[in-house]
Amino acid sequence: MAPLCSRVALMQSVFRADPGSSFWKSVDTKLAEIRNKVSTGDNRDKRINKAFKAILKKDREDFSGEDNPAIDNDYTRNNLQVLVEGHIEAAI
Fold it and tell me: Which residue of 20, 55, 70, 79 sits 20 to 30 Å from the alpha carbon of 49, by its own alpha carbon?
């Protein structure tokens, strides 16, 4: 659940900054910023997860007012998720 929530939190943060017609372009730009910031290497996936956790944590601080211990747990992407993300990245 945390991966989905963090992606929605990213879209929500982008929407707050750019609710107009360029929303999806802004989402793409934000995702590219995250990918570029973490660069490459063995710990790339962990750094991407950390970035999304920070986005989700900020979202929850701003909107829910509740702590959720599930955010702090590391999650492992399942094979389907890895496959889908690979296809998405290849298409970019």
Answer: 20
pTM for this prediction: 0.62
Q: Can you tell me the distance from the alpha carbon of 89 to that of 92, in angstroms, rounded to the nearest whole number?
A: 5
Exposure string over 23-57, b if 16+ CB within 10 A, otherwise e: eeebbeebbeeebeebeeeeeeeeebbebbbebbb
Number of domains in the chain: 1
**How much is the pLDDT for 29?**
93
